[in-house]
Amino acid sequence: MQEHIPAHYSSYPLRNIKDFPNLCEKHSFSGLNVTYPYKEHIIHYLDTLDPVAATIGAVNVIHFHRNQRIGYNTDAAGFRSSILPYLTPMHSSALILGTGGAAKAVNFALHSLGLQTTFVSRQPETSLQHLQKQQKCIGYSDLNEDIVRRNLLIVNCTPLGMIPDVAEYPHIPYSALTDKHLLYDVIYNPAETLFLRLGREHGCLTANGLQMLYGQAMAAWDIWKNDCLASIDE
Fold first, then answer.
1. Is 85:63 a contact under the CB 8 Å cutoff?
2. How confident is the model over 192-210, as pLDDT tens digits?
3. What percentage of the chain exceeds 90 in pLDDT?
4. Cα distances (angstroms) measured from residue 56 to each of 18, 39, 66, 80, 196
5. Does the global pTM surpass 0.90?
6. Cα 132 to Cα 118: distance, rounded to the nearest angstrom
7. Positions marked active-site
8. In the chain, what are the domains?
C-alpha cells in the first residue's frame, strides 16, 4: 500500500506441495513467489512456463493471468545482477554447491556470463539425471584441493547454514582457498554464514544473497505490476 496499490504480500507456508491447488482455490492471487524446497516440484502444477524458467527447470515466480498459472524464474536475473560487481577476468570457472532450483538458476546466470560451471552434489549420479546432459557434476568426495584452486568462484546453493541451523556448512577443502577466491552464498539470513566466515578467514572476497533477493523481487514485480495497477482503474 506504500505505492497506493490495493495489494498485499503475505506468506503461505505449505506442508506439502500437493496442497498448492487447494491454496489457489481459497485465495484470489495475482502472483506468488516460490521458495525452497518447491522451486522444481511446483512446475507440475502450472499451465505454462516462461522460456527462461523452462530452460532452467525451476520456478520462483507465478503469475496468475487469464485463468493461467504461468511460471517464471527471476532468481537467475537477481543472481546475475548481484554477482556482476564482484567478477573479474580471472573468474572463468565456478563450483556450484547443490543441484536444486537455486543452483540451476545460478548455473544459467553464470553460463550467460561466459563462465564454466561444475555442480557439487552429495549424490552426483542421481543429480545428473535431473541436469542438462552436458553439465558437469561431481561428489563432495571428489572435490579436492586442486579443483578448488582452479575454480575461483564458489557459490553455495544449499540450505546449509541457514537460520536456525547456523552451525552447518558445506564440507569443502577450505585450506585450498586464497585471496583470489570469491565465495558467494545465496543465503542472506544470517548475513554471514559459516561458509562465508571460513572463506573470509582464508582471505576470500565474500558476498551473501541479499542483493540477489532484491533483484529477483524487482523482476517479479515487473511481471505482476500491470495486473495490480489495472485493478486501480477498475
1. no
2. 999 999 999 999 999 999 9
3. 85
4. 22, 11, 24, 14, 26
5. yes
6. 12
7. 39
8. 17-73+222-233 (3.40.50.10860), 76-212 (3.40.50.720)
